[in-house]
Design goal:
Elements: H1 9-15, H2 20-25, H3 41-48, H4 52-61
Length: 65
């Protein structure tokens, strides 16, 4: 599965629930957050100080880093 930096966090978690474990592994508090419906992956990575490319790679692999 492929995800991009402009994808909404909530859309990713809803369409691919297995990605929730990736968000949790990166210690991102996006699961259940009302802002997840508005935040893109880029926004969330910036807010949490996460390397976007590393996070996207983990999301696309479906495996936490």
């Amino acid at each position: 599965m492929s995800f991009g930096s402009d994808d909404l966090v909530d859309d990713i978690m809803r369409t691919a629930p297995h990605t929730i474990r990736v968000f949790l592994a990166f210690r991102m508090a996006c699961v259940g957050c009302p802002i997840a419906t508005f935040h893109t992956v880029d926004d969330a990575c910036r807010e949490h100080g996460i390397d976007r490319e590393k996070f996207l790679a983990a999301l696309c692999d479906g495996v936490p880093a």
